[in-house]
Each structure stands twice: as C-alpha cells, then as structure tokens.
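Bug #77: duplicate submission created two jobs. Keeping one. Sequence:
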Amino acid sequence: MTRALAERVPAEAVVVGLDFSRGMLSRGVAAARQAGLTAICWVQADAAALPFKAGVYDVATCAYALYELKGTAREAMLCEVARVLLPGGRFLAMEHEVPPRPLLQLLFFVRLVIIGAEGARAFLGGEIHELGRVFSQVGKEVLPSGTSKILAGTKSCSP
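Kept job's structure:
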C-alpha cells in the first residue's frame, strides 16, 4: 500500500510506511527500492500508539489490518489515527469483504476464529458504527471485484 501511494502522490508529499513487524517493513523497503522509490519514511511501531505529533497528517491509510487487531487495540488505533490527522483529514482503510459464496464465506470466518481477532465478527456488521465513533462522514464502498472494500472517514474540525 505504501509503495502504491508513493507512486501516486505529489513529489513534495511525505509518505510514511508503518508496521509493528520488522519483516513486513523489510518487504516494503525492498519493494519500494525495486520500484525506485527512495523518499518513503519507514517506521516500526504499534498502530495503537503512533509515534507522531498530533494533527500533522492530511491522510492516513490502513490496509487489511482492522480485523487483525483485537477490539481494544482497534479502538486505540482509530483514536490514534484521529489524533495524528489534521482537522478535516481523511482516514481510508482497505479491508476484505465477506465473500458471497458459501464455501469462501466459511473459510473467511474460520480465518477470523484462527487469528483470534476479538470482536472481528461484530466489527464486520458494525464497521460504519465503530468508525463513526471517531470520524465523521463515514462511508463504505465495495470494490468492483467484490472481495475488498474501502472504509473512509473524516476527522471532525472540532478538537
């Protein structure tokens, strides 16, 4: 995700890739280097405790991680994202959509049980409500493939 963003933003934009996993960061660095992208800042940190000042980013993204986080960590992460966004800043998250085919749907839910993501099933039905507790103008758009969706919200202009 970080590489794709860095390829599309204006040259003066600052793109930061953050993950708690050193291995995932190494993969991101290697992919960015292979693509000739050298202006990405890479940070190893917990998304529930972001190491950034408040109100410094226009946009924050998250790819396929909201369901992986336990309920309290997901809530803390969303609050941290709101904290580091400027008023009016946007949060965009890409997540898997529940597959429509029964066998794939079963495998999808088995995976959620295996990863032990507390509250993941409840989040599936209430993602708009949960994001709405932190952000305004919350929305969801299922991508044409039907396998992923974009969740979006805006940081309120009030403190």
